[in-house]
């Protein structure tokens, strides 16, 4: 499938795929109609491209500070991609799955969490009978703890991955 050109600014073509990437990686304003939002993004892309063309024309991209910034940006981007790929691999492998026993153990260690949850549920669900409140509270609390523990496991796995990379690297402090 051919990548459709959305806009051409001087000699630079902005294609549909590039625009989609920009939209996906920008926090959109959910209150704006998607068609209006796309137009706004296109206008933003045009403004950015005009500034880039101006900068290149004036050789700003040859400045040493720019080169240092680009080197750092490239490293940061590569690191983010590697981390995301590793986290995706970890999640899909099931390494962060949390068992019911782990949830029970966590709740035993932090009983105040149960009372805090019950307090919030009682406040929000005044019109529901006590049995339904208890069931709702238990389900929401367990889902919250499961999510929390999965994130903790994921963070540990990420730390282990970085530790492994460090152990394989030759690092010299100077």
From TrEMBL:
It comes from the Bacteria. InterPro entries: Trigger_fact/SurA_dom_sf. This is Trigger factor. It comes from Clostridium oceanicum.
């Amino acid at each position: 499938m051919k990548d459709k050109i959305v806009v051409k600014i001087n000699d630079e073509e902005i294609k549909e795929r590039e625009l989609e990437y920009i939209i996906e990686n920008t926090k959109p304003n959910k209150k704006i109609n998607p068609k209006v939002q796309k137009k706004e993004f296109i206008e933003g892309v045009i403004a950015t491209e005009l500034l880039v063309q101006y900068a290149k024309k004036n050789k700003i991209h040859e400045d040493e500070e720019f080169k240092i910034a680009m080197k750092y940006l490239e490293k940061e981007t590569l690191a983010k991609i590697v981390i995301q790929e590793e986290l995706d691999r970890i999640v899909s492998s099931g390494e962060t799955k949390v068992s019911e026993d782990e949830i029970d153990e966590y709740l035993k260690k932090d009983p105040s969490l149960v009372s805090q949850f019950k307090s919030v549920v009682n406040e929000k669900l005044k019109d529901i009978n006590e049995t339904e409140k208890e069931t709702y509270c238990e389900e929401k609390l367990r889902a919250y703890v499961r999510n929390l523990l999965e994130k903790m496991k994921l963070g540990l796995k990420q730390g282990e991955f970085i530790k492994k990379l460090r152990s394989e690297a030759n690092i010299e402090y100077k």
